[in-house]
Amino acid sequence: MAEKLRLMAVHAHPDDESSKGAATMAKYVAEGHEVMVVTCTGGERGDILNPAMDRPDVLADIPAVRKREMAKAAEILGVEHRWLGFVDSGLPEGDPKPPLPEGCFAVVPLAVSVPPLVEAIRDFRPHVVITYDENGGYPHPDHIRCHEVSVAAFDAAGDPDLHPEAGEPWSPLKLYYTHGFSRARLVAMHEALLAAELESPYGEWLENWKPERGDISERVTTRIECADYFKVRDAALLAHATQIDPESRWFAVPMEIQRSVWPFEEYELVRSLVDSTLPEDDLFSGISAKVSL
């Protein structure tokens, strides 16, 4: 029997998997590959962002609610799911910002947070791992910590001298960062909306874009065409009802414009143990020749 290729996406909170690379995962599932989402925290300190869900009963039971939302999203995407079990750090606000809560994910030492992900990698044996870049995609402390943990676990999982208690060594072959919020994408969507004589939610955002931020598109090495799975992505997003307002700008761009203007999701290849020719259109590019199919 042919071996299925395996993809692991490591995220900080429940809902991150549905806003970052969900259509890519759904595409690979539909093609017969195995996909696992690993969620580092339970999202316990996340705000309720959907007014319809901002109720006392939901707030009182938010850890359980978010677990149910994650289970529903995983079912929609067709992925396996694993919790790492750490506690959400919250997003500190203010000047100066308050210290992070004791025991939260962002302050737990890497010596504690890396081994559980090493174990997950060795159990699932992914050929490809996806996570965030060094800025976390945006500077949430859990996203930055997720990056640190993911990179360390990717490097450690294949080393038999590291974390022997975490199972038999397994070396993933490629590591990617996901890039979903590029200026180029916002400009393309903004201009397409205006050309269609529709209101754009991105005008003020683009006006306030600081040149020193650059554009993450310059780092993109890999584009996955996955427009056929945008509806699956949106369904998974909506499963996170506490986090996603159906009236928000997540859904401001009509599907036909999304599919024609920006029909892909973007990634940056940062580690590869196989021959890789850039740019790529497949996260598994170069792997077939390396594994027994």
The gist of it:
With 293 residues, the chain is of the alpha/beta class.
Structure explained in plain terms:
With about 290 residues, this protein is α/β, with parallel strands linked by helices. The chain has one domain: LmbE-like (Rossmann fold). About 35% of the residues lie in helices and about 15% in strands. The protein contains ten helices and seven strands. The chain has a seven-stranded mixed beta sheet with strand order 3-2-1-4-5-7-6, sandwiched between helices. Helix 4 runs antiparallel to helix 9 and helix 5 packs across helix 6. It starts with 5 loop residues before the first strand and ends in a 21-residue tail after the last strand. The model has no long low-confidence stretch (mean pLDDT about 95).
Percent of residues in helical segments? 25-40%
**Ends distance:** 8 Å
Please report which band the strand proportion falls in: under 5%, 5-15%, 15-25%, 25-35%, 35-45% or over 45%. Answer: 15-25%
Q: Number of helical runs?
A: 10
Shape: globular
Structural class: alpha/beta
Taking strands numbered 1, 2, ... along the chain, how are they ordered across the largest sheet? Answer: 3-2-1-4-5-7-6
**Whole-number count of domains:** 1
| Main β sheet profile | 7 strands, mixed
Mean pLDDT: 94
CATH topology: Rossmann fold
CATH superfamily: LmbE-like
Keyword list:
seven-stranded mixed sheet, single chain, alpha/beta, 7 strands, 15% strand, Rossmann fold, 34% helix, 293 residues
List the helices and strands and how they pair.
Elements (H helix, E strand, L loop, with lengths): L5 E6 L4 H4 L2 H9 L3 E8 L14 H5 L1 H16 L2 E7 L23 H15 L3 E4 L9 H16 L17 E6 L3 H13 L7 H5 L14 E4 L4 H10 L15 H7 L2 E9 L21
Helix pairs in contact: 4-9, 5-6
